[in-house]
Every structure is written in structure tokens, then in C-alpha cells.
Amino acid sequence: MAEGPAPAEAAGADVGKVREALMGGFAASRILEVHGERMIKRTFDPGFRIRLHRKDIGLAMEAAKTLELYLPHAASLQQLMNKALADGLGDKDHSAMISLLQD
What we know:
- The protein is an all-alpha fold.
- It contains 6 helices and no strands.
- The protein has 2 domains: 37 residues, no CATH class; 53 residues, no CATH class.
- α2 runs antiparallel to α3 and α4 runs antiparallel to α5.
- The two termini are 16 Å apart.
């Protein structure tokens, strides 16, 4: 989700309008509705903390290893969440992941 607003903002687009346009199409989702707004407003008060999300991704990666599955997107997310924790974002809502992409 965080990869959508970051390049739009970097290109000088009105991220709120981009989100609004996406909400009118197949990309519409509860995630885009709630977390998209949090990313735009930079309100990262915990809904679901990055620390807990990283724990869950870790469990998924352990299960994948046991099942001999390759989950490249989950592995990438796990690395990003490790960086978020290292950067002190563990107690922020996982919508704060956009901060990693913009720094």
C-alpha cells in the first residue's frame, strides 16, 4: 500500500486526489480507504502496530520455510519491517511504512 502514495508524492501529484481516483476503480479497498488516509495525513497512531505485524510475517515465513515455499514479497516485507523496527517505528501503525519509502 505504501508504494502507491510515495511515487505520486515524489512526482508532485496531489496524493489525496490519486487516492480518490483509485477508490473509484478496482483498487478500491478498506486498506486504501483507511491506511491511504493515514499515510496522506501522517497520522500513524497505532491501529495495528508494526511490531505485531512483523511478528506475524515472521510466523508466515517460518511456515513457508517448513513447507519449502518461496514467498518473495513476504520476505521483502519482513526486511522492510525489520528496518522499521530499527528506525524506532515499531509502535506506530503499519501505515507508517510509507516513511521508509520516502526517506
